[in-house]
């Protein structure tokens, strides 16, 4: 089938899914990524308990990725965030530090969260804010909708009905 008129076509990424009513296409997100404030209700559940809740978060939008959400550290119940050794570097945001999440019942999600203590200039607003890998916890929700983890297990995007893909992450998509 030939590409749709007006649609990008490049051998390194697939044809974008057409967004439905009220949806955003992840293929319209920028590269380098953009940071946006969100007033959506963000929730993280672990061990059957909501361990984090905020309406004062951020989302990072990057081409081919569902949004990655960041919550203020104070949104987490006391004791949930347990720093762990090690770090990684993001070409856009800088050096990340990691946390285990520990629910009140003792359930542990290893290295399930990260932060940028000293991010690059475009991301200073999320300094110390916490992102969570949705596949590592019981569930994450945006405005009550349970998210699907970004495919592939490497990226921390939150897939909701508000975004159209396809999404980077599964085998064969590293070049997107």
Quaternary structure classification = single chain
Q: Quick one: CATH class?
A: Mainly Beta
CATH architecture: Beta Complex
Cα end-to-end separation: 21 Å
What summary fits the major beta sheet? 7 strands, antiparallel
Please report the total strand number as a whole number.
15
Biggest β-sheet: strands ordered side by side in the sheet: 2-5-6-10-9-8-7
**CATH fold name:** Metal Binding Protein, Guanine Nucleotide Exchange Factor, Chain A
Query: What structural class do the secondary elements suggest?
Result: mainly beta
Strand content: 35-45%
- The proportion of residues forming helix, as a percent range, comes to under 10%
CATH superfamily: Domain of unknown function (DUF427)
Provide a count of the helices: 0
The low-confidence runs, each spanning 5 or more residues with pLDDT under 50, are 1-10
Structural domain tally: 1
Give helix and strand order, one letter per element, not per position: EEEEEEEEEEEEEEE
- Average pLDDT over all residues: 93
Overall 3D geometry?
globular
Any overview of this molecule?
The protein is 0% helix and 39% strand. By secondary structure, it is an all-beta fold. The protein is globular and about 45 Å long.
């Amino acid at each position: 089938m030939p590409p749709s008129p007006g649609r990008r076509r490049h051998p390194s990424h697939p044809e974008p899914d057409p967004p439905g009513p009220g949806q955003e296409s992840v293929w319209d997100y920028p590269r380098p990524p953009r940071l946006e404030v969100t007033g959506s209700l963000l929730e993280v559940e672990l061990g059957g308990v909501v361990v984090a809740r905020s309406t004062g978060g951020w989302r990072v939008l990057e081409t081919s990725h569902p949004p990655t959400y960041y919550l203020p550290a104070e949104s987490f119940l006391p004791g949930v965030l347990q720093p762990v050794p090690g770090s990684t570097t993001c070409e856009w945001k800088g050096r990340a530090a990691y946390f285990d999440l520990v629910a009140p019942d003792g359930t542990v999600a290893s290295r399930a969260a990260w932060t940028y203590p000293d991010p690059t200039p475009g991301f200073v607003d999320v300094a110390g804010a916490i992102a969570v890998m949705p596949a590592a916890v019981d569930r994450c929700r945006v405005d009550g909708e349970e998210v699907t983890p970004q495919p592939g297990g490497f990226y921390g995007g939150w897939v909701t009905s508000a975004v159209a893909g396809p999404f980077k992450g599964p085998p064969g998509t590293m070049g997107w």
